[in-house]
Amino acid sequence: MIGVLRDWPIWLRAFAVSLRGELLRHPRLIPLIATRPVMNLGSLRSVEKVVAALCKAELNPLRAFHIINTVTTFVTGHTLAEAGSTPGHEDFAEELGNRLDHNEFPCISEAIRRGLGSSEDHQARFEFGLDALFAGFVKTACKYPNIV
């Protein structure tokens, strides 16, 4: 599961992609998962394995938890925003482009025209967010692995 220690950004990113995929397959569970994380021995054992692998990659346990929590919070929040809907506003994003004054909101109108809110856009934003997170992790966590 874990892979080569120096490749932790690769396998942790793969975990993030996999987690998003599973959450999207079960969208009605996302609010529950977001607000009530699983805290049982099985989940703690899984977390322990990941933290231990990050520690073997020369990060301290607290820094490892910072990284894991940042990744899972990003994935859960992004997926909740992507798959969630507000009762009574299901068609809001779709209709926004039709109701918007393009002269008053030219940038928003152009973003909608280019696919803002589409499944491709959600995927691109997710990838962009992961790229930014992991670039920051590698720069700061590896530069200062034991500061905390």
Question: How would you describe the overall organization of this protein?
Answer:
It is a single chain. The chain is an all-alpha fold and 148 residues long. The chain has one domain (5-86, 119-143): Tetracycline Repressor, domain 2 (Orthogonal Bundle), CATH 1.10.357. Helix content is 70%, strand content 0%. Helix 1 runs parallel beside helix 4, helix 3 crosses helix 4 (61-83) and helix 4 (61-83) runs antiparallel to helix 7.
Key structural traits:
148 residues; mainly alpha; Tetracycline Repressor, domain 2; 7 helices; globular
Approximately what portion of the residues adopt beta-strand conformation?
Answer: under 5%
The biggest beta sheet is recorded as: none
Stretches where pLDDT falls below 50 for ≥5 residues?
none
Any idea of the CATH topology? Tetracycline Repressor, domain 2
For the record, the CATH class is Mainly Alpha
CATH homology superfamily: Tetracycline Repressor, domain 2
CATH architecture: Orthogonal Bundle
The shape is globular
For the terminal residues, how far apart are their CA atoms? 27 Å
Count of domains: 1
Average pLDDT over all residues: 86
Radius of gyration: 19 Å
Order of helices and strands: HHHHHHH
| Number of H- or I-type helical stretches | 7
Structural class: mainly alpha
Helix content: over 70%
